[in-house]
Amino acid sequence: MLSQFLKKILWIFAFAGCAWAQQPKSCANLKNFTVPNVEITKAAAIPAGTTEPNQWGPGHSAPLPAYCRVEGVINRRTGVNGEEFGIRFALAMPEKWNGDFLMQGGGGSNGVVMPPLGINAAGDTPALMRGFAVVSTDTGHKSRRAGFDFGFEKDQQANLDFAYLANAEVAKLAKQLIAQYYEKPAAFSYFSGCSTGGREGMILSQRYPTIFNGIISGDPAMRTGLSNLAIGKWIPVALNQIAPKDADGKPIITQAITDSDRKLIIDVLLKECDAQDGIADHIISDPLACHFDPAVLTCKEGQTESCLAPNKVAAIKKVMGGPKTSEGNQVYPGLLYDTGITASGPIRGILSPGPGIFGPAPTVMEVDVEKEALADAQPLVDSLSTNLTTFSGHGGKLIFYHGDSDPWFSPLDTFEYYTNMAEANGGPQEVSKWSQFYFVPGMSHCGGGPGLDQFDLLTAMANWVEKGIAPVSVVATGKAFPGRSRPLCPYPKHAQYKGQGDSEAASNFECR
């Protein structure tokens, strides 16, 4: 009898011990976490119900779960001109952990530690709210102007950290902190980012192929020098040549293409390409099958309305065709004819030029493409390597997506990388076992535009990595079309209306 009682008592204590072992350690104790060249500046338990405002970009207004927040600096140092540098980071570890780790990518020139929420490509529910431990970083410098302050590049180490080193350093440290806090390592590790974050994801797959199990790369800023050549010089030259002049003889680029011109362009584009997916719904689902040529809008002799002057047609074709050398060699891909090319904001469409993220409307009138293309190659930052045998060999999964109306980075550049990478790694069929590419109709740069820009690739990625279930499609919604949903389909498929049923519902479309 006594023996049975003792056994029961021992079993209770053993069970309790197992239960306690699953609880995370004290958050505050992480302030004493010691690793060479790392300073932990904050370790605090954040109660459930808080929100994360973000003065630099998207925040999240819904109450967050309880989590441990750790902040710190890696390799703090004094650099060029006495400026302080160091890789700052913020790590959020939820009380109810799902066992996984997510690193979120940055944006623009970085320089800001964004709230570690994991919003990118996560649909309506950020990764932190799902139980992921999430980390973010400024990649080694402080920005004086949100998004586009590249003054740090004068310091070699800061430039290297931004180009490719910092994310790997932060990921390594975050994994150590996670293992310390939860007393076990993360089961799976993910990265998700858009724009600069998309480039960072590509860099990690190419230069650090074993850090992450799954990487989501959106609208990657994979060749910023050449994209800036296109957006900042090639396109303004084409439009300034047809723009009216102000009193000082300078071109007024905002008047190169009028509102009526833009309406005409979109109306005819939709008439030609909209219904190819089985339904006329102001969405071009198969952009590669849209062979719109603005030459069809050229005014005939004596015609002055519902048409475009020949010089405007030529300028539009030059804009959309992308920069070429004097011999006709393409140095950066052109753009897709999509529904957002005439959008007025907040990110302006490519045929709605004006003051924007690259500064005031430029008045440049000529550009030496050969010279500029050579100068704008950035081997440290550009992410062009296609040998991903180690990444795929350890089971890594890689998903690309790109907004078809992105005016800053051509979706065709990302698509060209994907096709080149596929050829270099056994061909499209073989690569489809571990990588996919998604065109996002109507979406501007990382969101916005006349498209459906909300979709959950994070769940799709986790199911692929952890359960071996490859994504067949991902449902997208967005403010541009309230109440509408559509499937996003991995290339080479696109969303096609089945021919019956509610055309607002994704269930009545198939990937074909």
Fold and architecture overview:
By secondary structure, the chain is α/β, with parallel strands linked by helices. It contains 12 helices and 14 strands. The strands form 3 sheets. A 9-stranded mixed β-sheet has the order 1-2-3-5-4-6-7-8-9, with helices on both faces. Helix 3 (156-182) crosses helix 4 (196-207), helix 5 packs antiparallel against helix 7 (310-321) and helix 5 (224-240) packs antiparallel against helix 8. The protein is globular, with a radius of gyration of 25 Å. The model is unreliable at 1-22 (pLDDT under 50).
- Classify the fold: give the CATH topology of the largest domain: Rossmann fold
Largest sheet: 9 strands, mixed
Assigned CATH class of the largest domain: Alpha Beta
**How would you describe the shape?**
globular
Question: Low-confidence stretches at least 5 residues in length (pLDDT < 50)?
Answer: 1-22
Helix content: 25-40%
Quantity of strands, as a count: 14
Strand content: 15-25%
User: Helix count, per DSSP?
Assistant: 12
Count of the domains: 2
* Arrangement of strands in the largest sheet: 1-2-3-5-4-6-7-8-9
CATH superfamily of the largest domain: Alpha/Beta hydrolase fold, catalytic domain
Give helix and strand order, one letter per element, not per position: HEEEEHEHEHEHHHHHEHHEEHEEEE
- Kindly report how far apart the N and C termini lie: 70 Å
C-alpha Rg, in Å? 25 Å
